Amino acid sequence: MLLVVVLIVLAILFGIGGLVLTGLKWLLIIALVLLIAGVISGVLGRGRTKV
Question: Membrane-spanning residues where (predicted)?
Fold first, then answer.
């Protein structure tokens, strides 16, 4: 019975860890896309004000 409880707790911990890592991966991807969009927007905006 103790082994079953330990296995369930480990499964829950690994599941939560996997969700956290997946969430961090998506957060990093979204941040990178926003950074690229911001750089492009800044470059295009700066080019317009020179004229």
Answer: 28-45
